[in-house]
Amino acid sequence: MEISDLLSVEGVVPRLKVGSKKQVLQELAQHASTIVGAHEREIFDVLLERERLGTTGVGKGVAIPHGKFANLDRLHGVFARLEEPVDFDAVDDRPVDLIFLLLAPETAGADHLKALARVSRLLRDDAVCAKLRGSESAEAIYALLTETPASNAA
């Protein structure tokens, strides 16, 4: 599974201006709703419920919020680079500015876990994250996320 299977250029938000974790999830839910055709409130509620189980802020300024939905036909991703980092209750207590939202069908099972692992591996690469932070356009960010050597890892 490649990042390009999950993400389109339309799913990249290059400069998201928000002030809190809740606002991040609200904005991403709104953006994702136009891509997947689900209601933004449903997406937001699933993401919020997942955050209550434990933070998806994985460290080094990165968060990977995710959730499963009944009416999705495949996995979908939305990537956002925040204008200013926000507190995301991350495992390392650092604020977050790179967020990859992953939405999966309820039946995704192993595919959901493989997608999470793929995104996690990619965003653990400090060089990739530095380039993402320096990119201004959705197209440039999309190219970095989909064409980087790290995306070819197993």
Largest sheet: 6 strands, mixed
- Report the radius of gyration as a whole number of Å: 14 Å
Indicate the percent of residues in helices. Answer: 40-55%
Question: What sort of overall outline do the alpha carbons produce when their principal axes are compared?
Answer: globular
Q: Could you name the ranges where pLDDT drops below 50 across 5 or more consecutive residues?
A: 150-154
Number of helices: 5
What does this 3D model show about the protein?
By secondary structure, the protein is α/β, with parallel strands linked by helices. It has a single domain, classed as Mannitol-specific EII, Chain A, CATH 3.40.930. It contains five helices and six strands. The protein has helices at residues 21-36, 40-53, 110-123, 126-134, 138-147; strands at 12-16, 57-59, 62-63, 66-69, 76-86, 96-105. Helix 1 (21-36) packs across helix 2. The longest helix is centred in the N-terminal third of the chain and has 16 residues, at 21-36. The N and C termini lie close together (9 Å). The model is unreliable at 150-154 (pLDDT under 50).
